[in-house]
Design goal:
Order of helices and strands: HHEEEHEEEH
Largest sheet: 6 strands, mixed
Helix content: 25-40%
Strand content: 15-25%
Strand order of the largest sheet: 1-2-3-4-5-6
Structural class: alpha+beta
Shape: globular
Number of strands: 6
Radius of gyration: 23 Å
Number of helices: 4
Number of domains: 1
Length: about 220
């Protein structure tokens, strides 16, 4: 999905600051990863989250209209009427993006999905309209490849305990195209178009004979 649904307050310098914060977190985590000394995947994920939280807090200190706050469930960025949390949603080794991938069991992000439903849906509209106000800075990476991709995604479906569906998925950084502000990402849920050869439909002689015998 393209950048058209990305709020203006999360574009440009804000987008650059968020990307730099996540990239810096993976660099720090990669530096301490050492399974031979017990510093494995669990610590790696914790380090990414902790350093990202620190980096985002520092990056938005004194930023007009922005503040990093905590509601007892971890820090989140409030900026221009938008609420942003950050979560690792996968390792990113299969190239499938974040389709079908969500933050692990997080009631805070589930509540964000419910709030987006209230903002985007009306009694007379079954299709969401407008721009969401709650966003997840969803990133994928692993200790071998490092950071693979970052998305801004607006949660829209929930089972009450976790996010179960995205409304908007906006790629804002990709290791395969690191200089692009909005790198290409396949539209979630839709296969890539494939051009098929012309069908050759002919009645075979044996099939014609069989049809004659049945009449």
């Amino acid at each position: 999905m393209g950048s058209s649904n990305c709020p203006s307050d999360l574009r440009g310098p804000a987008r650059d600051a968020l990307v730099a914060a996540i990239r810096g977190a993976y660099e720090e985590a990669n530096g301490i990863y050492d399974p031979g000394r017990g510093l494995g995947d669990t610590l790696y994920g914790q380090a990414v989250y902790s350093v990202a939280s620190h980096n985002i807090t520092r990056a938005f200190e004194g930023w007009p209209g922005a503040d990093v706050v905590s509601r007892g469930r971890g820090p989140e960025l409030h900026i221009g009427g938008n609420r942003v949390r950050w979560n690792k949603v996968g390792r990113g080794t299969d190239g499938g993006g974040i389709r079908g991938r969500y933050p692990r069991g997080s009631r805070a992000t589930a509540a964000m999905a419910s709030e987006n439903q209230m903002v985007l849906f009306t009694e007379d509209a079954f299709e969401p309209d407008g721009i969401a106000t709650n966003w997840i800075l969803a990133h994928l990476g692993n200790p071998i490849e490092g950071l693979v991709a970052i998305y801004l995604a607006s949660p829209i479906e929930t089972d009450g305990d976790s996010v179960t569906g995205w409304r908007d998925i906006i790629a804002i950084w990709s290791a395969s195209d690191p200089m692009s502000e909005y790198p290409y990402a396949p539209v979630p849920g839709l296969p890539e178009p494939v051009e098929l050869d012309e069908l050759d439909i002919r009645l075979r002689d044996d099939e014609g004979d069989a049809a004659t015998e049945l009449t």
